[in-house]
Amino acid sequence: MKKENLKKYCTTSGVFALFLFLDIITKHLVEMNIGLYERINVVGSFVQLTRLYNRGGVFGIMQGHQMFFLIVSLIVFILLILFYVFEKNKSYPFAVAMGLIFSGAIGNILDRLLGKPGVVDFIYIGDDRVYRWPAFNVADAAIVVGAILLVAVFYVQERKNKKTVE
After folding, report:
1. The model's pTM
2. Largest CB tally within 10 Å, which of 6, 29, 95, 144?
3. Distance in angstroms (rounded) separating the CA atoms of residues 16 and 102
4. What pLDDT, in 10s, does the model give residues 61-97?
């Protein structure tokens, strides 16, 4: 393995470990210190901490189908690992994006595997009179940021490829 690739694998591993740790510790702190459905204002009532258990999928869809989402999550995680291993252009932004996505996926999978009532969600943003975004957690945020970064990486790569063809 080339030294450059080893550094990128280490980058992915480091990002993965850091964000998985943050996800696990924040969920633990929430479960120990915030009552179920309790709301704590952080930035007025716009940003709140709460404790909810998502027994469904993204945005709370299909509540009560935890086993289905566990199986789908595990399959998608395996496919992501294969994608990561076989991707030839592992730039540092790609390595960071994949570390974020991996950590988020494993963070939420762990909640389901450990027999919790659902995935622990605790960040609540919005205004009850207008719209409140569904509660989420560090794992969810890592997946979203990682996915956006991944799209940006492929967009930049595609633009470079088009310039070299012209």
Report:
1. 0.88
2. 95
3. 6
4. 666 667 787 888 899 999 999 999 988 888 999 999 9
For residues 107 and 93, is the Cβ–Cβ distance under 8 A?
Answer: no
Question: DSSP letter string over 117-141?
Answer: SSEEEEEEEEETTTEEPPPB-HHHH
Q: DSSP 3-state assignment of 62?
A: coil
Q: 64: phi > 0 → left, psi -120 to 50 → alpha, else beta; which? A: left
Backbone dihedral angles phi then psi of residue 107, each to the nearest 5 degrees: -55, -45
Segment holding 53, helix H or strand E = strand 47-54
**Max CA separation in the chain (angstroms):** 60
Q: Active-site positions?
A: 121, 140
